[in-house]
Amino acid sequence: MIATPDRTPLPREFFARPVLDVAPDLLGRILVRSTPDGPIALRLTEVEAYDGENDPGSHAYRGRTARNGVMFGPPGHVYVYFTYGMWFCMNLVCGPEDKASAVLLRAGEIIEGAELARTRRLSARNDKELAKGPARLATALGVDRSLDGTDACTSEETPLRILSGTPVPSDQVLSGPRTGVGGEGAVHPWRFWIADDPTVSPYRAHVPRRRRS
Question: Cα–Cα distance between 19 and 152 in angstroms, integer?
Answer without folding.
Answer: 16
